[in-house]
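Message: I would value a second opinion on how I read folds in token form. Give me a protein, with the fold worked out from its sequence. Write it directly below this note and I will take it from there.
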Amino acid sequence: NMNNGEVFGINIKGLALFKLNNFKESIINFKNAIKINSDYIDSYNNLGMCYYKNENLNEAYRNFKLAYKKNPNSILALINIANTLSLKDKNTAALNIYNKILKDDPTNNEMYINICLAYCKMGNFENAKNNYIIAKKNFPKNYDLQLSYAYLLLTKNRCEEAWDLFDSRLEIPRIKEKNK
């Protein structure tokens, strides 16, 4: 499409404004990009992120859904939909999406973090813990996952268990190197 270069440029400008927290101008840019080429899905995802950051979750959700409708293979749009649902406390729906993504890509360790968080928001700490255990077995060196689980333990006032996880972070090579 002849307009893709122009739309790409408008999206880059919108993203720069987004990084500067100028969401109002960012939104204008992404809407203009959509007017020029309504099939360019990045514009919808980017517009959705502006609304997401402004806590306008209904508009964020609507734009992420449009991006996904235009490209059902967009994992980014699907993750954005699920994250928005989770923020709207629709955790069961979010979990269904996170699990679908994980089923299609078992190496996506970010989904384990999202699944654990959704279960915790639902008050289902046991399922959060079970998913963490599976994730730890699959990704033993993923310290972000470990840190996330430690925070979850802290929310349940399980301080000693959390400390063991934080304490084990001392084994991370970059931290060991700094503390020689």
Observations:
- The chain has a mean pLDDT of 87.
